[in-house]
TrEMBL record:
Belongs to the LamB/PxpA family. It is an enzyme of class 3 (hydrolase). It catalyses: 5-oxo-L-proline + ATP + 2 H2O = L-glutamate + ADP + phosphate + H(+). Pfam families: LamB_YcsF. PANTHER family: 5-OXOPROLINASE SUBUNIT A, UNCHARACTERIZED PROTEIN YBGL-RELATED. The lineage of its organism: Bacteria, Pseudomonadati, Pseudomonadota, Alphaproteobacteria, Rhodobacterales. Keywords: ATP-binding, Hydrolase, Nucleotide-binding. SUPFAM superfamilies: Glycoside hydrolase/deacetylase. Its EC number is 3.5.2.9. This is 5-oxoprolinase subunit A. One of its GO terms (molecular function) is 5-oxoprolinase (ATP-hydrolyzing) activity. It comes from the Bacteria.
Length: 258
């Protein structure tokens, strides 16, 4: 059995910059790099791209609503065409900086409220797909498991991969518990690792009430801005390895260009 481990990185802008990107990039196999919408700037993007490429970590673009105050976790009303232009602009900017860093962007994962909305709103999912499929590089999509974005990407003929979240609690419908609710964010590395091992063995993500929800996963996300994220990712790696689960990028190829 094998699985990818990803993290949202390059978010070193303003008060939300809590993660240690260098340490996290030594642990993950894929990195979702913020593109200047919800966080980041050209210098941060370039540094994150360079660090990821040096470590052989596969690079993805992480576009989100242009809402730095809310860290992209609030829905900004936008028409589908506006969403397509926003995603194209952010991913294109990251691709340009990747060229300077001698790196390559291989997939797109929407951030925060944009990703959550695209999980259930097909026009929003289609808008993201419309941008991704015309950008250079034959980009793949990393989407919330069981989402409309998965369906939209596959209907458009794109490569689509599914993810689950290590540090987030789930609802019975397969969506994440809203961050406004108590217990939405998980912090115990041992309990998190045990839950993931059970999920990978059964295909059912354990729920707080003792039930489970069937999900598919090519990748596991540890949010880089979650307190203790580095220690959490390190323990997850150790526990997965102990269970005989290989960590491997879901998209083949390395970040550094020759």
């Amino acid at each position: 059995m094998q699985i990818d481990l990803n993290s949202d990185l390059g978010e070193g802008y303003g008060p939300w910059a809590m993660g240690d990107d260098r340490a996290m990039l030594d642990l993950v196999t894929s990195a979702n790099v913020a593109c200047g919408g919800h966080a980041s700037d050209p210098d941060t993007m370039f540094e994150t791209l360079t660090l990821a490429a040096e470590r052989g970590v596969v690079i993805g673009a992480h576009p989100g609503y242009p809402d730095r105050t809310g860290f992209g976790r609030r829905v900004i009303p936008m028409a589908p065409a506006e969403i397509s232009r926003m995603v194209a602009a952010q991913v294109g900017a990251l691709q340009a900086l990747a060229a300077l860093a001698r790196a390559q962007v291989r997939y797109v994962k929407p951030h925060g409220a944009l990703g959550n909305l695209a999980a259930d709103d097909r026009p929003v999912a289609d808008a993201i797909v419309d941008a991704v499929r015309v950008l250079p590089g034959e980009l793949a999509i990393l989407a919330i498991s069981g989402s409309e974005l998965e369906l939209a990407g596959r209907d458009a003929g794109l490569r689509v991969y599914s993810e689950v979240f290590a540090d987030r609690a789930y609802l019975p419908n397969g969506r994440l518990v809203p961050r406004s609710r108590e217990g939405a964010v998980l912090h115990d590395p041992e309990a998190i690792s045990e839950r993931l091992i059970r999920f990978l063995a059964t295909g059912n993500m354990p729920l707080p009430d003792g039930g489970g929800i069937a999900l598919a996963a090519d990748s596991i996300c540890v949010h880089g801005d979650t307190p203790g994220a580095v220690d959490m990712a390190r323990r997850i790696r150790e526990r997965l390895a102990g269970a005989g689960i290989l960590l491997k990028p879901f998209v083949q190829g390395r970040g550094r260009l020759t």
